[in-house]
Hints:
Blueprint: H1 3-13, E1 17-23, E2 33-39, H2 42-58, E3 64-67, E4 74-79, E5 82-88, H3 89-95, H4 97-100
Parallel strand pairs: 2-5
Antiparallel strand pairs: 1-2, 3-4, 4-5
Helix pairs in contact: 1-2
Amino acid sequence: MNLGDIIEKVLDDKQGHNIARINFQNTHAIFDEMIICDASNSRLMLALIDAVEDACVEHGYMDYKKEGNENSDWVLLYCDRIVVSVFLKDAREFYNIERLWQDFLV
């Protein structure tokens, strides 16, 4: 199981909604993949990111960075060459990241 699969499973197990994966491996992006999901509230959003952090450490990925907090409507986690974006539902609809990267959806 690769890191992207691990992250997707963690998000699914912890009740992340509408999980999407965007593959950037054949582009000039600075990361290989973006994994997106939404959460019904800010507490769940932070719990999802914390669970992904724990999974990264558990699998030996110690170099990660988190952006956002309980006052944010979107939290990012950079782990290895994967970006995890967890949105509050309304923010995800507003930013519509999948529309920007629709050609790369997995």
